[in-house]
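Researcher: Next entry in the queue.
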Amino acid sequence: MNLYREISSALLDWYDRCARDLPWRGIHDSYRTWISEIMLQQTRVETVIPYYKRFLARFPSLSDLAAGDEADVLKLWEGLGYYSRARNLLKGARQVAEEYGGKLPMDPTLLAKISGIGPYTAGAIASIAYDIPVPAVDGNVLRVYSRLFGIRENIRQPAVRSKLDELAVSLVPEDRPGDYNQAVMDLGATVCVPGTPDCERCPLSAFCSAFEQGDAADLPLIPGKAAPKVIRWTVAVIWDGKRTLVRQRTESLLQGLWCFPMLECSPEEAPAMLTHKLRLSTEPFGNPVHARHVFTHLIWEMDVLPLKSVNGMKAPAGYRWVSKDELEKLAFPAAMNVALRTAKELLRQEEP
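Model: Structure for this entry, 352 residues:
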């Protein structure tokens, strides 16, 4: 038995004993695999599980999703973050319905041409749903392989990444490729974790260069990231006694989701700026509450300011006054959680 076969055999033995019990496992359903893999991108498993179940309850098949409405999809995605995933998922479902008769193709090359499906997701769907022996290489897999084979070079360099991709291809067994890929994912998520891995529990420690050299915590080598940009906002939660003012974003970040008026000024300056920019007369109706949201390359520092509208004015262009019931139906990003909670508290004051 060659080295690669020994590694895959040891990993599958471990997976048979220690695999996580997840609702998208143990099935050969390309649609469900696709939904789970898109949701799992940059999101923890325990966060994804309830979203996955709710999403499939509403859209149990690819044809159901293809016929769905973007507002419904975004509402189901509310709080999961990275909303472009949801929009691309809907776009991809419609593409599959039109070009492939409503069934995801088996060929990874064709899968990667579908909106929102990159090389990793294509490999995951092909191997897990269709038993095609191709790798699915994400950050967890790169970390495992860089430690296992002692890759002590910057993994973002094209030549180094090509080397890791070649190793990934060589390691996937002909039998149980989907289980193997999920085993590597589980190993990276639970044992070969970022920082200090649990090498004593690792089924591959006998083969691992980093374990032998004692430098697993230093791998993989990745250059430092630039510090995220910080933007300071005053988020104006404006109440007219029965309604609150909202806007659907057209910007690429959080496009299609709803938010409250956002002003690049201090809370003290907000009423004057609202008068100047939106022709809205307001007066303070409480103290500002701080909120913070971290995106991948951006941080929003927000002061959520409750304001009372004077004379119940008409909504400015691009904005809407909405009632409490209407507010509940709109999809808001997690960045607006504090503002949304503030708005609901204001609107509840009018309840009998």
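Model: Residues 240 and 309 are 5 Å apart (CA to CA).
Researcher: Noted, moving on.
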